[in-house]
Amino acid sequence: VQLQASGGGLVQAGGSLRLSCTGSGTIVRDNDMAWYRQPPGQQRELVAVIKREGAVTTYADSVKGRFTISRDDAKLALYLQMNDLESEDTAVYYCAVAQWLGTKWNVALWGRGTLVTVSS
Question: How, if at all, do strands 9-12 and 114-119 pair?
């Protein structure tokens, strides 16, 4: 079972990028999904979560109002639209299968990351 993120690159501050994530079979469609990121020299952090069927989403405070997580179950894909990017958004972004443990989100499967670099 695999997940693969794509769409990263170099962008100027204030710009936009859209990340995509696809996986083997129907894994993206059948699960709660999340985006995480790991800035240089820092720990991995949760960016956003979207539940199955897309009814509920959750965002880290640092990206609220700027990032949008979405899914296209027909295309078996997960997306992260990132607008008004800041240098602090520079990180490797990972998609993941998420599990709610009652008090926090956990990751059941990590995907391969994609690097986003925001130049100031």
Answer: parallel
* Residue 39 region by backbone torsions, left for phi larger than 0, else alpha for psi between -120 and 50, else beta: beta
**Nearest by Cα to 68 from 35, 106, 110:** 35
Question: Which three-class secondary structure state does DSSP give residue 73?
Answer: coil
- Which region, left, alpha or beta, applies to residue 27 given φ > 0 means left and ψ of -120 to 50 means alpha? alpha
Q: Distance between CA 41 and CA 66 in Å, rounded?
A: 23
Q: How many CB atoms lie within 10 A of CB 109?
A: 16
Between the CA of residue 27 and those of 3, 18, 34, 48, what are the distances in Å? 8, 20, 12, 18
pLDDT in tens, 105-120: 999 999 999 999 999 8
Which CA distances in Å does 72 have to 24, 25, 77, 100, 115?
Answer: 15, 14, 5, 21, 22
**What does pLDDT average to over the chain?**
95
